[in-house]
């Protein structure tokens, strides 16, 4: 715990500093929710097709999902989501193109969560 998943459109692949983002994200999560650095695990999943609204050739999204053990206040989770969005924007180079749609969600892990 925390389990972090980042889904991102293939169009942002060349301009997305994924490893730099993950390192800073882990530090942010540690500071915000009082966990250990070695407990943070991030997976990146590249999305082949993305459609936003009516759809366009340059549609792009990046979504960060963070799953935590239960017990954090909703306000703390909202604070972390906002901070993740700020951090994420700094790791995407748009080169004059449109900024991808960015989103973040912090949720509780289900009671069935186990690790080994």
UniProtKB/TrEMBL annotation:
Pfam families, A to Z: CHMI
Keywords, ordered alphabetically: Isomerase
Keyword Isomerase: yes
Stored SUPFAM superfamilies: Tautomerase/MIF (SSF55331)
Matches recorded under Gene3D superfamilies: Macrophage Migration Inhibitory Factor (3.30.429.10)
Origin superkingdom: Bacteria
Protein name: Isomerase
């Amino acid at each position: 715990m925390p389990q972090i998943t980042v889904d991102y459109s293939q169009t942002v692949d060349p301009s997305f500093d994924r490893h730099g983002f993950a390192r800073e994200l882990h530090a942010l999560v540690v500071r915000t929710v009082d966990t250990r650095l070695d407990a943070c695990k991030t997976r990146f999943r590249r999305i082949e097709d993305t459609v936003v609204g009516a759809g366009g050739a340059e549609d792009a999204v990046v979504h960060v999902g963070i799953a935590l053990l239960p017990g954090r206040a909703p306000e703390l989770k909202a604070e972390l989501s906002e901070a993740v969005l700020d951090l994420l924007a700094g790791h995407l180079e748009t080169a004059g193109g449109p900024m991808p749609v960015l989103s973040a969600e912090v949720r509780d892990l289900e009671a069935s969560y186990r690790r080994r």
